[in-house]
TrEMBL record:
Organism annotation: Lysobacter gummosus
Domain of life: Bacteria
Subunit text: Forms a membrane-associated complex with FtsE.
Keyword terms of this UniProt record: Cell cycle, Cell division, Cell inner membrane, Cell membrane, Membrane, Transmembrane, Transmembrane helix
Localisation: Cell inner membrane
Name the record gives this protein: Cell division protein FtsX
Function per UniProt: Part of the ABC transporter FtsEX involved in cellular division.
Main location: membrane
Gene: ftsX
Pfam families, per the entry: FtsX (PF02687), FtsX_ECD (PF18075)
């Protein structure tokens, strides 16, 4: 038998009333959110030139650090694979036989500080030289093969220490490890990354101030309306909500324009840069933002506008409440 069998209609009415009131409050909350969003879009459209100016300033402020960040990512890709740049070339002495070179490669692979070893025989080296140098006929005139065996070692840890130990091998003739350029490039990339963050903070603060000042002007024009709502008992959240959506709309539109500017710059530079890279035998192409990164940028710009509007509106409401008190 159901436990609700003894409950009469009069006893179930309060529960239904509470549930109905809860649904009514939720519906009113959602309706006001939707109204705030639509009203914010309407206010943007009613002032097109002022809106475009604000969005344009914010878009440039967002595009500069984003463009620098994208450029750094492309420079890092153009520099090549990090593991490849760390490789150490060990040229063995001419008298070292191929069997001994293979055994030495196996010995090096067993070391914990070695990530991998590739053996290139003199025949492979000569074939590569003929293919890449364009001196095939001249090299064919040379009797024998003057090239030694080559071990290409990829380190796991510090390549400088490994390069020193490889130079002490009895079979090693020349150890080639030009890590200076990579260290300098890494230094420049670290500096560029730090610069991008500094610019992002400074220009993001500028975008925050632009949104805040725009929302402040909108608040001043609606001061009487806000005062009436406060006298009627409206909460700060109720009053603040339309301005928050206004700031978020500014931020979202600015992020969209910033992405459009960077995409246009990417298409403008891609063809000549690809042709320049091809002249050096590289297949490098500029890489822009993928869908996930673009979504993150749009979400971040909208949050930036929301934050700017929230700070200004909260400050005004606190002052207003203090003045009434």
């Amino acid at each position: 038998m159901s436990s609700n069998a003894g409950i009469g209609p009069s006893e179930r009415e309060p529960e239904a009333a509470v549930e109905s009131a809860s649904q009514s409050r939720l519906g009113a909350w959602l309706d006001h959110h939707l109204y705030s969003l639509v009203a914010s879009l309407g206010r943007l459209l009613r002032k097109p030139w002022a809106t475009l100016l604000t969005i344009g300033v914010m878009a440039v402020a967002l595009a500069l650090p984003l463009g620098l960040w994208a450029s750094l990512n492309n420079v890092e890709r153009f520099a090549g694979d990090v593991q490849r740049s760390r490789q150490i070339s060990v040229f063995l002495k001419p008298e070292v036989k191929l069997d001994r070179a293979r055994a030495l490669a196996d010995e090096l692979r067993a070391r914990p500080e070695v990530g991998g070893v590739e053996l290139r025989t003199p025949e492979q080296g000569l074939a590569d030289l003929r293919e890449k140098s364009g001196l095939g006929e001249s090299l064919s005139a040379i009797e024998g093969n003057p090239l030694p065996s080559l071990l290409v070692v990829t380190p796991k840890g510090d390549e400088l220490i490994l390069a020193q130990s490889l130079g002490e091998l009895a079979e090693a003739d020349v150890v080639q490890h030009d890590a200076g350029w990579r260290q300098r490039l890494d230094g420049w990339l670290r500096f560029g990354s730090r610069l991008a963050w500094v610019l992002a903070v400074m220009l993001g603060l500028g975008a925050l101030l632009v949104v805040g000042n725009t929302v402040r002007l909108d608040i001043q024009s609606r001061r009487e309306e806000i005062g009436v709502l406060q006298l009627l008992g409206a909460t700060d959240g109720f009053i603040r909500r339309p301005f928050l959506y206004l700031g978020a709309c500014y931020g979202l539109a600015a992020g969209t324009v910033a992405l459009a500017l960077l995409t246009a710059a990417d298409h403008t530079l891609r063809e000549p840069l690809t042709a320049l890279a091809a002249s050096y035998g590289s297949h490098f192409e500029l890489q822009g933002f993928d869908l996930l990164q673009a979504a993150q940028i749009l979400a971040g710009s909208a949050a930036l506008g929301w934050l700017g509007a929230g700070l200004v509106t909260g400050h005004y409401l606190r002052q207003s409440r203090a003045g009434q008190g």
